[in-house]
């Protein structure tokens, strides 16, 4: 019985590869010294895209412009912060004063006398002697 040369060459190649691989795996399994680990195969999987998803398209969202900064008036809370500390509130607009009553009288009546003047402009003219303390005289 004659075997064609091509088949014989293929069979010998398979045998030449299969025998050393089997010996190597047997040596690794037995923990024999000097056994080399099998090389790791690293592959990156491709993206998984379902067929119907390829047809989906949507327009890009349009970003809105940033809002403009709005000016906040200094009197937003009703206090004039040029006087006193953060816990003290000298009104931005004084209430209607009684006849003959001054702003300093109103401040003394509300126990705010002796507060500091933080702005040299002194909008309410509460520091006539310009020593930095409102209604001290």
Describe this protein's structure:
By secondary structure, the protein is mainly alpha-helical. Among the domains are: 1-33; 77-137, no CATH class. It contains 2 helices and no strands. The chain has helices at residues 5-30, 103-109. The protein is elongated, with a radius of gyration of 46 Å. The mean pLDDT is 75. This is Excalibur calcium-binding domain-containing protein.
Compose a concise summary of this entry.
With 137 residues, this protein is mostly helical.
Distance between the termini: 133 Å
| Shape type | elongated
Low-confidence spans: none
- Radius of gyration from the alpha-carbon trace, in angstroms: 46 Å
**Class derived from helix and strand content:** mainly alpha
Name the helicity range: 10-25%
Report the β-strand fraction as a percent range.
Answer: under 5%
Largest sheet, in brief, is: none
Count of DSSP H/I helices: 2
Order of SSEs: HH
């Amino acid at each position: 019985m004659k075997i064609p040369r091509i088949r014989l060459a293929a069979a010998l190649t398979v045998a030449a590869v299969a025998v050393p691989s089997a010996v190597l795996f047997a040596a690794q399994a037995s923990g024999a010294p000097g056994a080399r680990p099998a090389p790791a195969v690293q592959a990156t999987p491709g993206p998984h895209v379902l067929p119907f998803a390829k047809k989906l398209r949507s327009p890009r969202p349009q970003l809105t412009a940033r809002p403009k900064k709005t000016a906040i008036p200094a009197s937003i809370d009703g206090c004039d912060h040029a006087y006193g500390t953060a816990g003290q509130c000298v009104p931005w607009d004084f209430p209607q004063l009684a006849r003959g009553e001054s702003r300093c009288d109103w401040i003394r009546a509300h126990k705010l006398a002796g507060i500091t003047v933080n702005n040299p402009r002194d909008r309410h003219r509460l520091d006539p002697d310009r020593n930095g303390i409102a209604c001290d005289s």
